[in-house]
Amino acid sequence: MQTQAIRIHETGGAEKLKWENVTLPDLAADEVLIRVIAAGINFIDVYHRSGLYPLPLPSTLGLEGAGIVEAIGADVSDINVGDSVGYCVAGLGAYAKHRIAKAERVIPLPANIPPEQAAAMLLKGMTAEYLIRRTYLVSAGETVLFHAAAGGVGLLACQWLKQLGATVIGTVGSEEKAQLAKEHGCDHVILYNHEDIAARVKEITAGAGVPVVYDSVGKSTFDASLNSLAPRGYFVSYGNASGPVAPFAPALLAEKGSLFFTRPSLMHYCATNDDMHASAKALFFAVHSGVKITINQRYPLAEAADAHRALENRQTTGATILLAE
Q1: What is the distance between the alpha carbons of residues 320 and 307, in angstroms, rounded to a whole number?
Q2: CB 226 within 8 Å of CB 235
Q3: What is the pLDDT of residue 60?
Q4: Which of 1, 80, 87, 188 lies deepest, with the highest CB count within 10 Å?
Q5: What single DSSP character describes residue 301?
Q6: What is the tens place of the pLDDT at every residue in 285-322?
């Protein structure tokens, strides 16, 4: 069938995103056809577009989205035409009016989660889930440092951390974002452009440092993250918004207090269907228990380039979605 999608034929800036007519292949026996209602925008999309994370070209971008099932393959038995579903580990193809996905890699949506909300929360929320519940299990009473606290993952994770009973220190780039972070669970907010992050963390923790830092910023926050950790603390590096972290000697981790450094990804933490569904179930429960999903930017799908520019220039807060209809 014919549909429309945002594709890249070469890597580079936002101008490489092209709105095109696309022919979808025939549906395989284990696949479903989804009419996309909304797609989520995430920094991994920027990494794919820029070439930091290489893709076969040409490619339709986007990992996160939601919509309505329009057709099912002959072997699909647990999903029906008309079902509302979402996805974030089903492979590329979210920036499209229609997409095909393996039935086992889509997530049936609860009645209280509409597709727009799902497109804004699945990748970000399931990222928050594995970060705070599996990469490092945050316990009540612990103090954690979360960079980019006013971003899509940050606003969601800070609320969830409060549900777990943690004290949250967040970093942001402006007073406006600081206020937003406070409204979503941050106990302490550090303006990274004006304050020494590590010094403030040590001040807040009475010199102890934090047991875990969640860092999606990368290059510009690397030193501050290291210096904010308590001995045997966990440096969880899950993004490169400011550029990749430069190579470093492992002995640096010993010097700073026998630290742990990990570079996790959602794809590995949700590699099995059981892990994927368990992560989504935990997210849905957190939302049911009060975590709010903040969609602060909406763009027509055809204007994905403008959405990428806003994200890269740090002009967004919360979630950004592309509307396919």
Answers
A1: 8
A2: yes
A3: 97
A4: 87
A5: G
A6: 999 999 999 899 999 999 999 999 999 998 988 899 99
d(CA 12, CA 209): 39
Q: What's the sign of the alpha-carbon dihedral 236, 106, 163, 182?
A: positive
CA atoms within 13 A on the CB side of 235: 24
Q: Are the C-beta atoms of 125 and 193 separated by less than 8 Å?
A: no
Label residues 244-259 b or e (16+ Cβ within 10 Å = b).
ebeeeeeeebeebeeb
pLDDT tens-digit series, residues 210-227:
999 999 999 999 999 999
- The pLDDT of residue 234 is 98
Mark the ranges of the chain whose per-residue pLDDT is less than 50. Answer: none
Q: How many CB atoms lie within 10 A of CB 9?
A: 10
Contact criterion met (CB below 8 Å) for 21 and 58: no
Residue 314's pLDDT is 86
Burial of 102 (0-12, 13-18, 19+ CB in 10 A): middle
Pairing of strands 98-102, 31-40: antiparallel
Separation of alpha carbons 243 and 141, rounded Å: 33
What's the full length of the chain, in residues? 325
Per DSSP, 78 falls in state S
Nearest to 41 by CA among 100, 86, 94: 94
CA angle 230, 236, 238 (to 5 degrees): 155
Contact present, 152 and 314 (Cβ < 8 Å):
no
- Which tokens belong to 258? 């026998």
Beta bridge partners of 63: none
| 8 A C-beta contact, residue 265 and residue 238 | yes
Query: 32: alpha, beta or left, given left = phi > 0 and alpha = psi -120 to 50?
Result: beta
Q: What is the dihedral of CA 269, 262, 208, 242, to 10 degrees?
A: -100
Residue corresponding to tokens 């799902």: 118
Q: What is the pTM assigned to this prediction?
A: 0.94
